[in-house]
Give the backbone structure.
Amino acid sequence: MFSKSLKFAVALGAAIALPGAAFASDVPESDDPIIIVQNNWTSQLVLSTVVGKVLEEMGYTVEYAPSDSQLQFKAIADGDMHFQVEAWEGSMKGAFEKAVAEDGMIDAGTHDAATREEWWVPAYVADSCPGLPDWKALDACAEIFAVAETAPKGRFVGPPADWGKNYAERVKALGMNFEAINVGQAATLWAELDAAVAKNEPIVLFNWTPNFIEAKTPGMFIDFPEPEGDKCANDASWGINPDMVNDCGAPRSGWLKKAAWSGLADEFPAAWSIMQKVNFNNSQIAAASLLVDVDGMSVEEAADKWIADNADVIASWK
Ligand code: TMO
């Protein structure tokens, strides 16, 4: 209390002398830490660190908390964590919207970036599988993607389980000749891709955009039936399988949102103002992942480089 009222008095003093800077001198409004969520893919790790560094420079204490990408939204609603910079429609829409509707989590705004999370093949795969990127064409070629574990079915190299989508269910709902085998971490996706590319072997794996892959390996997303609002996820009668949900792909142009704890506006108003303005486009997100996954920087180094390269973007949040 004492330190708060002292800061208030300092702010008042500043307000009298310097009206334009009245609030700046009151930051941080609280000495409690702002807890920023971190997930298990590169752009999120870099860009959450970018936001953390900007807040630290303003005087805030920032802590980072790793979280499961589905369970994080309830934790944010409850105030156990405070801010998430990258919530993806394709993999997190259900958990995100439930936390807003039922738990009071704040939808802190939508980035300019358009996103996609989907099955993906390197471009050379089209030579041995005519008709791509249509999913039925892919399915007709399933056998060329078979491995010992899945033969005669094709293997879909699926994402870590916490990225939300149940691809085994999609395979079943669409009656596909595939088996979804999830990796434990993103690095395994890229190792599988590199190994296949080196031997020019067919592979279909989970990928997303914006990501560093588009600057490294030409390829294409597979076009599945497009979802229509929430119907594919909730209404079995919708879509080509009248008895099952999940008979569709992810949105081809999905949103990317920020998520926040409802207490931020009161406890850290200047930080909250920044968080609402944080806004990334596709190339800014791809660049963040490229610094680590192609250039080999640490997350920390990449965040510093991204900040140096995007001073104008950061200035626009203030
Ligand atoms: C959640 N992700 C962007 C990795 O698909």
Remarks:
- Residues 4-13+31-114+255-316 form a domain with the D-Maltodextrin-Binding Protein; domain 2 fold (CATH 3.40.190.10).
